[in-house]
Amino acid sequence: MKISATAALVAGAAIMSSAAGVTVPTVTLSNGVEMPMMAAGVGGDNQSDAALSVIEALGVGIMHIDTAQDYMNLKGVAVALAATRIPREEIFLTSKVPGCGVPSQGLQPPCFENTYESALADIVKLGTPYVDLLLLHFPPILGCKKGSESCTKIQEQWRALEKLYANNKTRAIGVSNYCQECVECVLENSTITPMVDQMQFHVGMGDDPAGLRSYLKDHNIVHEGYSPLAHGDIFDVPAVEAVANATNKSAAQVGLRWIHELGSVFVTKSDKPDHLVDDIDVFSGWNLTQDQVAQISAATDPACHVEAPGGCCE
Description:
- The chain is of the alpha/beta class.
- It is built from 11 helices and 10 strands.
- Strands 3-4-5-6-7-8-9-10 form an 8-stranded parallel beta barrel, surrounded by 6 helices. A two-stranded antiparallel ribbon has the order 1-2.
- The chain is globular, with a radius of gyration of 19 Å.
């Protein structure tokens, strides 16, 4: 697979049109690693589209790339990483290994061995000696009650991530779609606390859905939100529309800025370079007032929609 000349031209145009001087801020993880607070996701892309998405994101200055084994496009991401002139150490690469023990989905037992080997194989596919953040993508569908078979599988998977971290195959480890009970399961038998929990998060879910953000803060775990625009459903939220008009920004920019104002990381996605430029403009120096944040936080629609086991906390 090769990056086409057209792709290179598109990426070049994106660089030229990006907001001059805009830098994505970072958050410091519990182990001292600096993680950019905005990521470009490639979920739903085929191999070629993933390669182009990564090139476009890097072109506008988004140095955090978010992929996963389940996206089935790791080789496309690898092509883009190999094609860019940006040094690997300047790129923050997140990947995810599937949960273990979910019927007809993800990995199957033995969970420790299969998680470790599967993650190593993914890193090879990405064409890099390491990833910057490795997440368990989702918990078993039967829940995470301590002492349960599901919790045991989670703990085995987490032990695999701890070994990968110890062996310098990842600079940080965390979880995704883990509500409090699932995080508690990890903490019961871990030597390393998860550094990140990536969950669905957007306007309409409130600023602390099911108390998860407060819980993560208390445990020094960074909260990261995927589907930050709810697939466009936030655009019709009256509070978002009102703030967009008041700030002369788009509804998408307001929704993303709201997440940033709350201190969370977000994963955005677009196949249009100009939309990525608009997204990174969230960090160009403008902000929401406390009243505007409160108005948006009070919205109760769109609600969380389940995309993976544990994706919506209750």
